[in-house]
Amino acid sequence: VVLPTGAGKTLVAIAAIAKLARPTLVVVPTLELMDQWEESVKKHLGISPGRYGGGEKNIGCVTVATYDSAYINAEQLGDKFELVVFDEVHHLPSPGYRQIAELCAAPWRMGLTATPEREDGLHEILLYLVGPVVYRRYVRELAGKWLAEFDVVRVYALMSESEREEYAKLTKVYKSFLRKRGLRMRSPRDFEKLAALSVRDAEAREALLAWYRARRIALHASMKLDVLKDLLAKHRGDKVLIFAEHSDVVRAISSRFLIPEVTYKTPEEERRAVLAAFREGRVRALATSRVLEEGVDVPDANVAVILSGTGSRREFVQRLGRILRPREGKRALLYEVVTSGTREVGISRKRRKALEGES
Fold first, then answer.
1. Model's pTM, two decimal places?
2. Residue 120 confidence (pLDDT)
């Protein structure tokens, strides 16, 4: 089942669990999602599920487990369930996690995700691990009824003169190498080939480092923070989520604008306190890296700013999904701040295709 973030994937699975009424295992990637599933099962099925993860090993008629715990205990859990639900099923094809499905005897299987496709192409094995896609809807199809109406606005930032000169120099280095070797950089697999080559080839390593440094300049051009300053002033009355690719940039945003930050380094207790303050309106803006993209409930935000990101459609759909909860009279707004004259413009075009399901 492929539905955008916020479109009710959990409720679809809850309905299937209720209809089958068989011992069920729900596999989730994070402890936050485990907590959310526990609340959903209690609310809609009227039972307390077992928890298998985070130090707990309790099995019930419905059991919620993390991918890590289900993988480690795959043999013990394999014959105990008749229905297995893989939430965020795009994680399943990973070399370790796929054993959960391979060792599970459950005849009924359901996978939930906003975007099953993986950059490494491993999503193709979901067909035999779980089954085919039986239902799919895209963001645009659900906007206005099941999801909030929204706009995606691309805002351009300029590089400083020194950034522009350095970017041009670095770009020349890696493009010259690619031409010389007859290589192209069209997919993650092409990048992996270059990375493998760089281990034994000094010239390839120089090209790889040049590519990486040029990317950093484009993603984190200094004038992007000036653009962000204007956007925050414009949306002073809204709840704003700010996404950046790296935690050091999140920290810089937090310091400059006095905005709370949430990254993978944020202690669990502090993260819960910050998210609670955001939900209750005591905090109007929040800066984060990738930790809020999957499995964290952040209600009521209606504006998001992508200050930097990848071309991943999943990342884009998940970030957009953070602001798509329907609200009367409110239209969601997603800003992409991209550095003009760089590869970032093409990256923005690529990820936007996820809105319509284009290839």
1. 0.82
2. 80
Cα separation of 315 and 191, whole Å? Answer: 19
Confidence of residue 293 (pLDDT cuts 50, 70, 90): low
Query: Please, is 40 exposed, middle or buried when counting C-beta atoms within 10 Å of its C-beta (0-12, 13-18, 19+)?
Result: middle
Q: Model confidence over 64-122: pLDDT tens digits? A: 999 999 999 999 999 999 999 999 999 999 989 999 999 999 999 999 998 888 878 88
8 A C-beta contact, residue 340 and residue 277:
no
C-alpha of 124 from chain center: 20
Which range has highest mean pLDDT (105-119, 181-195, 297-311)? 105-119
CB-based contacts of 32-39 (< 8 A; 24+ apart in sequence): 32/295, 32/296, 32/297, 33/87, 33/88, 33/294, 33/295, 34/64, 34/65, 34/66, 36/10, 36/295, 36/297, 37/10, 37/64, 37/87, 38/64
Strands 50-53 and 56-57: antiparallel
In CATH terms, 142-158+221-355 corresponds, of 3.10.180.10, 2.30.30.140, 3.30.470.20, 3.40.50.300, to 3.40.50.300
- Which residues make up the CATH 3.40.50.300 domain(s) of the chain? 9-137, 142-158+221-355
User: pLDDT over 90 for what percent of the chain?
Assistant: 57
Q: Does domain 9-137 match CATH 3.40.50.300?
A: yes
